[in-house]
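lol ok so funny story. i was supposed to be doing the assay writeup but got distracted and ended up predicting the structure for this chain instead. priorities right. anyway since i did it might as well share w the group, maybe its usefull for someone
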Amino acid sequence: MSALAGIVRFDGGPADPMTVGRMIDCVEHRGRDRRDVQADGAATLAYRWQRTGPAQAVDAQPLFDRLSCAALVFDGRLDNRADLAVDLDISDDASVSDAAIVLAAHRRWGGGLLPRLIGDFALALWDGRERRLTLARDPRGIRAISYAVIDGGVAFATEPRQLLRVNGVDTAPNLGFFAERLTGIVSHASDTIFRGVHRVPAAHAVTATSAAPAGIVVARHWDIEPRHELRYADDAQYAEHLRDLCQRAVTARLRGVDRAAVLLSSGIDSASVVGLASRVNPVGVPVQVRAYNLAFPDFPDANEEPGARRIANHFGVPFFSVALQPATPQHHLERVRQLEDTAPGNLGVSDDVLAASMARDGCRAVLSGVGGDEWFAGTYLHTADMIRNGRIIAGVRQLWHDGHNPDAFHGVGVLATSCLWAVTPERLKGVVRRVRPAPDRTPPGFDRGFATAVSLVDRVAPVPVDPRFSTLAAGAGYRAAMHPHGIYAWEESTRQSSLFGCEPSAPLLDRRIAEFAAAIPEEQRWSGRQTKRVLRAAMAGIVPDDVRINQPKRDPGAAIYAQVERQYRAGTLTNLELFDARILDRSAVDGMYREMVRLFTGGQNRYKVLAFRLWTFLAGDCVWRGLFGRDARAALVSSRTEVCSGTETAGTRHE
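and the output, tada:
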């Protein structure tokens, strides 16, 4: 686990090592084994590092290449380092760090190095000859990096809060982004909660050649090839290909690790990760795998503990489960102040207990099954593709299966309407829009004046299906898998896990798996009522058949409902500070609550949407109070102006 920070000046002045020291020291928990701050002319870079396994060599950064006048900080892991080492004619032994390989790749390929990197990474590269700063992030945004334009230069760091230590950064609330977060649909990939801090979007690079807006360019360095198709003679070949990719992805994430945690549910995704991790045996000694689970004993529809325990027993791995312990608003508020950023709206404090247990057990590397839903669950628009291609009977049959799938949220009627709309010609859609009354698309609960001021309707409008793909289903699947909201949710989760010294990763979000998933026929994802068809086939002989063949998802709706109801009875939901800030409308939120109760009492599943939105409001109120509310400023001033221990000078190293 690691963190980076730095400042590059374009106005000829030196970057202040003391400021960079403060930036890297406010995330001490991300790296206690090594700390280094170095300055070289216009650039001052900092790096913190902590081992996640005993076989990992010391990662000495920042790196400076005197021949090419380049400097690098690299937070990440290269999964194709052996291939890169061959191409670069350098050694691949443990004494050569991933960062050193990246710097050598820059020396060889310059700006063309980024598409060649496979793995999870965030990097900052200063090219002194070209006077160009490059900030880049891996294809799915597993590692994070943010930046801020300051007077005469650019500051950058792993977490947005590190940039709050830099004079001149605009720390006012980004109200448009905050509104997106309150709806549960983060749609702007480069925004943060602070107006003057920006994220490097996943799969993108930000290059800066000056501190002026015209000197900063954001460009994509990787993307799926939408017209690439992978076609095999039979299903077994798809399964074999995916099994190999999954094993390689899991193995890569356990390099140098002697033990690892897996967040285990009762489904195929995390079961696959546990099974494959249990097979990793890099130097004759298997990696010790431990499984961790969050249980919902009071909510049978949400509780995955019994199934997860059976899976862990099948693989012979230790199993640890924590029952849901409801979180209080005070707990969320304290976490926001600790992170100085948005925080996951977890239902309980049990997530913290799990993370602390993993760290106590020596499991710094934490794997999850995230990615299975995103790339292999499929989309109802495969039915629209069937209809569009004249397969009417097959489409109707599939539509019936979709609407009656145990995991389906919408019924056949809603899905049929959506499919028909998807295949309606654009000209006819335009006629329909002109004839029918314009619907009110303002998300419920918001103060209308606020929603208008931040253009909320436009900000959260659905993104059209990507037309570059040959089918509607493929375009919709890509949109869902790469949506900014999922990427930001991962960032929030990893920020919180880092407080406990844990480094999450998601093998099923591997770039090579994504490229495979985007190229296969839709029938490999979803056929009849079975989703993730190719993944289930790939895990034959690894995952128990009762999990692999038919395991519907658990439903946390009732648990969320109970938490919202508890906060309503406690008076929390009726006294949000967001009402006084005129961001939310008190009467509208009260109406949402009453409608939620009515739907729940009547046994209608639509209550889940309202329960989720109300819980998001509760968590969002904690973010507002902790960062921008009445008492927030005084609480945060001291933390943002603390001095780092010691004195920083050019070239000084502290370990």
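The first strand starts at residue 2 and ends at 9. The chain has three domains: 2-222, 235-371+506-549, 557-639.
back to the writeup now i swear
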